[in-house]
């Protein structure tokens, strides 16, 4: 089957499988296999989903074939391992999931933020345990915007499992515009907590999901909140359940 440039604006790269000699497996958003040698098709790709852990070398080899990628989205697989990304996307979207940890409570692994990234979007999964933690990540100087989508109320309020992450960012919060997209967050409490961490005034706001969807548009909202479609989820993640928004918005899959 031939895949044209128009068919592959959004490509899914799956972790190297042992039986495939550690070669990345590529799919279109609808689940059709795509050859890594399909240079013409990949040249038109603007969004890349990375599913599961990737060896640095594997992504390095793929990067030259993806010159137009502006958005990279990270997805954990069942191993919950970290990611590697050597592309230079303007926007990085993370969909971490909590997994058991031997040394502390449940941890939602994130991934490194490329040095050229200006906008980081973090979907925070529901934490069933009070000691759950979203794994901190370094925020390079290029980052100017952080958007947080909590799946539910953050407990303990106001930051819940994000507390360690924001403490890692620390004074960097002063230069970053932070937006919580949540219907039940207290903007005053969030602002006070972040200013206490940063040691200075911060630019933070809380916006309802409906208002934020209207502000950035349906297509961008789906890109930031809708996970893998049904076909790919069953193929790659053993049919794991996704958040309510993912199910509700699957009509956006290509």
Structure write-up:
- With 254 residues, the chain is α/β, with parallel strands linked by helices.
- The chain has one domain (46-249).
- It contains 8 helices and 13 strands.
- The protein has helices spanning 39-42, 56-62, 163-169, 187-198, 209-216, 218-225, 230-236, 244-248, and strands at 10-14, 25-28, 33-34, 47-51, 71-75, 91-95, 98-99, 107-108, 119-124, 133-134, 145-150, 177-181, 203-207.
- Helix 5 (209-216) crosses helix 6 (218-225).
- The longest helix has 12 residues, at 187-198.
- It is globular, with a radius of gyration of 18 Å.
Structure described in brief:
This protein is an alpha/beta fold and 254 residues long. The chain has helices spanning 39-42, 56-62, 163-169, 187-198, 209-216, 218-225, 230-236, 244-248, and strands at 10-14, 25-28, 33-34, 47-51, 71-75, 91-95, 98-99, 107-108, 119-124, 133-134, 145-150, 177-181, 203-207.
């Amino acid at each position: 089957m031939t895949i044209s440039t128009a068919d592959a604006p959004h490509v899914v790269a799956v972790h190297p499988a042992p039986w495939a000699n550690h070669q990345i497996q590529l799919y279109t958003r609808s689940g059709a296999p795509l050859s890594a040698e399909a240079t013409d098709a990949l040249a038109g790709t603007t969004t890349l989903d990375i599913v599961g852990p990737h060896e640095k070398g594997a992504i390095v080899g793929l990067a030259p074939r993806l010159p137009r990628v502006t958005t990279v989205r990270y997805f954990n697989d069942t191993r919950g391992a970290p990611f590697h990304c050597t592309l230079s996307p303007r926007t990085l979207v993370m969909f971490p999931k909590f997994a058991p940890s031997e040394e502390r409570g449940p941890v939602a692994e994130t991934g490194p933020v490329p040095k050229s990234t200006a906008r980081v979007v973090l979907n925070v999964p529901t934490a069933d345990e009070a000691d759950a933690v979203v794994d901190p990540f370094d925020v390079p100087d290029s980052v100017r915007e952080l958007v947080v989508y909590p799946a539910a109320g953050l407990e303990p309020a106001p930051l819940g499992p994000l507390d360690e992450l924001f403490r890692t960012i620390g004074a960097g919060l002063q230069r970053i515009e932070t937006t919580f997209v949540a219907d039940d967050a207290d903007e005053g409490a969030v602002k006070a907590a972040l200013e206490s961490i940063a040691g200075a005034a911060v630019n933070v706001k809380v916006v309802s999901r409906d208002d934020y969807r209207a502000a950035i548009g349906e297509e961008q909202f789906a890109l930031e909140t809708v996970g893998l479609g049904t076909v790919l989820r069953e193929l790659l993640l053993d049919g794991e359940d996704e958040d309510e928004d993912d199910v509700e918005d699957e009509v956006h899959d290509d």
